[in-house]
Design goal:
The protein is mostly beta strands. It has one helix and 38 strands.
């Protein structure tokens, strides 16, 4: 890893781009259930989460705010009555060589008045949150497909290159340690780290910029946050045999951070198997018969040891690149008179799934968005598929006061049983939206269709929920009814997610979007 450009204080993604028109009925999950249920009681308290360093009342310390991945904060003055007064406070221009996904696809974090983020060249920035002034920049110039990102813990900023992970001194940007996780060309690392206590979790993935690598498997690593030493690892391909054909197959890995609860459970959503959909010799993924565990599964581990506790596979034997990739979300609701911890997962198959956190018992499932030719084997001739390889629930959800907020994307792709993706989809034809779901029942409360693809996650502050679209528009809606309260247009597309700091919303707008000359920058919108 390079060690250059430490500045003093004076100074579409190929397969993972990020439903709304038809709301479909609630259905009970029918996944493949695993074993070894956790026996501990259901609790998810601010006090006990503080032991991990992830108390919800803290500033925006991680990719999804807290260890429960709620993306919801009340430590802000922004609400439905004043959100319309948000104005640009500062802009920080981004430069460098963009990838096909642009220059930024990550979520900033905010610690002690400093905004930290990484770009799609693995460079890390520290800005004064009040003024946008650059405090330091750490340059790697190692292209990453994203959605990468940074996390804070033990006075360190932890981030990744495409082959490894590193920790920087949060004050100076100087390197504290580095660790390579995967050989160049054998796969990559594009997940934002998650830090709990003195542990950081990251994962490899079995794909590079251009292809899935035969024989490559997604491995989850738990490292000592102060030294980078490996504490445990977990292979997301069950038994590690790649389902009989390691010379052809690959699969697994994470590309969003896991959740950790106060019982010491780690919940992670695992990506898809490959090749997909298939090859002339092995149509419809027949080189990898069976369910292809643990791909497209919610997997729960002991956060201390990496031991498997339980799992639920949402989509066995995936042939459409329908990752269950979104960060799991933890919350508590009253079920049958008892306050119960619930974990919610979603992914590119365009569905949301709720389970009891203690043992993985299915609670409800909800398809979202447009669905067409999205189940069963594919024919040999090319057909149109929705939500598509780049559709579904692409980016993180949020949860607040018993309501789950789900951004979705409808973007058709054309697939057959024997060929990979036939053509790059027409991004301009994509649509999306945001919907609100009752966590206890899975009932849809409201839906807000959007004219473009919602790649901007969901983020809640008090009674306002934010999202954004690929054409560079930021939206704010009332959490109670979906009424639009505020909107802003940026100079580039958006496939990154905001952080909230006091009375300020910090957004990265650095994707190509549909602008002839996009202006890549990080923008802070603030109340007067």
């Amino acid at each position: 890893m390079a060690d250059t450009d430490i500045r003093p204080v004076h100074k579409f993604r190929r397969r993972r781009l990020r439903t709304g028109l038809a709301l479909v009925a609630l259905a009970l999950v029918s996944g493949i259930a695993g074993t070894e249920p956790a026996a501990s009681a259901d609790r998810l308290s601010s006090e006990s989460l503080a032991a991990w360093g992830g108390r919800p009342s803290q500033p925006w310390l991680g990719h999804n705010y807290d260890l429960a991945n709620t993306r919801a904060t009340t430590r802000t003055a922004i609400n439905s009555r004043n959100v319309g007064n948000l104005k640009v406070k500062w802009r920080y221009p981004l430069s460098g060589t963009p990838t096909f996904a642009g220059l930024m696809a990550s979520n900033p974090i905010v610690v002690d008045g400093v905004t930290y983020f990484s770009d799609l060249n693995s460079n890390v920035y520290a800005l004064d949150s009040k003024t946008g002034r650059e405090l330091w920049k750490r340059t790697f110039n190692d292209p990453n497909v994203g959605p990468n990102g940074v996390a804070y813990g033990q006075g360190l900023i932890v981030a990744t290159t495409f082959t490894g992970v590193f920790a920087l001194d949060a004050r100076t940007g100087k390197t504290v340690w580095t660790r390579e996780l995967i050989e160049s060309g054998k796969g990559g690392v594009d997940v934002a780290p998650q830090v709990y206590g003195d542990t950081v979790v990251v994962s490899t993935a079995p794909s590079t910029w251009t292809e899935y690598v035969p024989g490559s498997m997604g491995i989850v690593y738990a490292l000592n946050v102060r030294t980078g030493a490996v504490r445990w690892e977990f292979n997301t391909v069950k038994d590690g045999d790649l389902w009989g054909h390691p010379e052809i197959n690959s699969g697994g890995g994470l590309w969003y951070p896991p959740a950790i609860d106060d019982e010491g459970r780690l919940f992670m959503a695992v990506g898809n198997p490959a090749p997909y959909p298939g090859t002339p010799e092995y149509p419809n993924g027949s080189s990898r018969p069976g369910p292809n565990l643990y791909t497209n599964s919610l997997v729960t581990l002991d956060a201390h040891t990496g031991k498997l506790l339980w799992y639920q596979q949402v989509l066995p034997h995936d042939i459409r690149d329908y990752d269950l990739q979104d960060s799991p979300v933890l919350t508590k609701v009253r079920l049958e008179g008892k306050l119960t911890s619930v974990v919610i997962a979603a992914g590119k198959m365009g569905s949301v799934h709720a389970y009891r956190a203690s043992d993985g018992k299915p609670l409800w499932s909800l398809p979202v968005g447009k669905h067409l030719n999205d189940t069963g084997p594919l024919p040999n001739e090319v057909i149109q598929v929705f939500p598509g390889t780049f559709g579904g629930v692409q980016t993180p959800m949020a949860v607040s006061d018993g309501t789950l907020f789900v951004p979705w994307v409808d973007l058709a792709t054309h697939l057959s049983a024997i060929e990979p993706l036939q053509a790059w989809p027409d991004l301009a034809s994509g649509k999306g939206g945001l919907l609100a779901v009752d966590v206890a029942t899975g009932r849809v409360k409201w839906t807000q269709p959007l004219p473009q693809m919602a790649f901007g996650a969901a983020t809640v502050t008090n009674d306002v929920v934010f999202t954004s679209t690929y054409d560079g528009t930021v939206y704010a809606f009332d959490v109670r009814n979906g009424k639009q309260l505020w909107t802003a247009k940026t100079g580039a597309g958006i496939n990154s997610f905001p952080a909230i700091d006091g009375n300020t919303v910090i957004v990265g707008a650095a994707a190509p979007g549909f602008m002839a000359n996009p202006v890549a920058e990080v923008i802070a919108y603030s109340l007067p």
